[in-house]
């Protein structure tokens, strides 16, 4: 087969869940609702952490970064999906596809690494409470955030450049909600099997290393929690840790299914459902999981809306 030059393709058609659904209006309304929830809840959580002194702690600083990543991640996908459906079009330019891929990989990868750092934060808080503010001082926290963004963006840049340099001269329909590596490679008119294997191997590694660190941290954390003499202390620690573990379970559950499960077990409809979950549903739920079970966040919210008296100024 004669390979076409990469410039022969200047746009793609995203055939996502709205195009494949029997009830696209209902699905679109659900996506709009979830996107508004994600924007509102993540934005509000960022605001509360910024303005309330009680939330100026390492745990909440890392949580604010998670909210920022979630807010950006869902914004990369949801608005275009909604506008395309309402305007009756679903095209994305070649450059736009590459940009969306880069941003999605960067934000997803950064969240992957950040969740591991958040688990370490909980380990330090429970195992070394007296040295917590020293071990998690601002310089360390900013380094954690910088490492998350830097490693994720470098990895995303490499994947994006390599993927977009394949010759694409087949059907221009990407059967996925957004431009991602594996759905896009199905359109390439070149042998991508070795690259797909590399993507699979690197994806498993990129996911399993942080996940292993999270599991190790929480095994140590739970061991310490169950040996606490105070029942109230145990309950508070378990509530905090369970919120984080819920977020970890949702994120890694979807990511493992998408990137670790062999391609023979995938189908476009299933992948589209999953992509909605980790790009729209999870960003909407994460801040609710943290805020609804956290007394400090709820206290900050009550203070902002005037239901709690302001702290006295000395």
Number of helices: 11
The profile of the biggest β sheet is: 3 strands, mixed
Class by alpha and beta content: mainly alpha
Rg from C-alpha positions?
21 Å
Q: Count of DSSP E strands?
A: 3
Unreliable stretches covering 5 or more consecutive residues: 1-7, 310-314
Question: What proportion strand?
Answer: under 5%
Overall helicity: over 70%
Distance between the termini: 78 Å
Overall pLDDT confidence: 84
Arrangement of strands in the largest sheet: 2-1-3
SSE succession: EHHHEHHHEHHHHH
Shape: globular
Task: From the structure above, extract its key features.
314 residues, mainly alpha, three-stranded mixed beta sheet, 11 helices, 3% strand, disordered N terminus
Structure commentary:
This protein is mainly α and 314 residues long. Helices cover 73% and strands 3% of the residues. A three-stranded mixed sheet has the order 2-1-3. Helix 3 runs antiparallel to helix 4. The longest helix has 34 residues.
Please describe the topology of this protein.
Layout: E1 11-14, H1 17-20, H2 24-51, H3 58-87, E2 91-93, H4 94-127, H5 132-135, H6 138-164, E3 173-174, H7 181-185, H8 193-225, H9 231-259, H10 268-292, H11 295-305
Parallel strand pairs: 1-3
Antiparallel strand pairs: 1-2
In short:
The chain is mostly helical. It contains 11 helices and 3 strands, in the order βαααβαααβααααα. Helix 4 (about 95-125) packs antiparallel against helix 6 (about 140-165).
């Amino acid at each position: 087969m004669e390979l076409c030059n990469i410039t022969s393709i200047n746009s793609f058609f995203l055939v996502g869940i709205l195009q494949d659904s029997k009830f696209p209006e209902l699905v679109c309304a659900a996506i709009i609702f979830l996107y508004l929830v994600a924007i509102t809840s993540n934005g509000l959580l960022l605001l509360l952490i910024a303005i309330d002194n009680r939330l100026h702690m390492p745990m909440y600083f890392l949580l604010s970064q998670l909210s920022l990543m979630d807010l950006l991640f869902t914004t990369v996908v949801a608005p275009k999906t909604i506008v395309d459906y309402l305007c009756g079009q679903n095209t994305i330019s070649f450059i736009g596809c590459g940009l969306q891929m880069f941003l999605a990989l960067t934000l997803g990868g950064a969240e992957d690494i950040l969740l591991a750092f958040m688990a370490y934060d909980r380990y330090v808080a429970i195992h070394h409470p007296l040295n917590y503010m020293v071990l998690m001082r601002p310089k360390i926290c900013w380094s954690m955030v910088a490492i998350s963004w830097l490693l994720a963006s470098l990895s995303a840049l490499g994947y994006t450049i390599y993927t977009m340099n394949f010759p694409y001269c087949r059907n221009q329909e990407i059967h996925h909600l957004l431009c991602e590596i594996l759905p896009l490679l199905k359109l390439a008119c070149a042998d991508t099997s070795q690259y797909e294997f590399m993507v699979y191997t690197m994806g498993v590694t990129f996911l399993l290393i942080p996940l292993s660190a999270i599991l190790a941290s929480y095994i140590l954390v739970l061991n310490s929690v169950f040996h606490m003499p105070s029942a109230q202390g145990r309950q508070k620690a378990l509530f905090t840790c369970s919120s984080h573990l819920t977020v970890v379970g949702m994120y890694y559950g979807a990511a493992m299914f998408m990137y670790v499960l062999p391609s023979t077990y995938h189908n476009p409809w299933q992948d589209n459902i999953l992509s909605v979950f980790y790009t729209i549903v999870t960003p909407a739920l994460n801040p609710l999981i943290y805020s609804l079970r956290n007394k400090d966040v709820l206290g900050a919210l009550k203070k902002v809306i005037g239901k709690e008296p302001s702290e006295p100024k000395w």
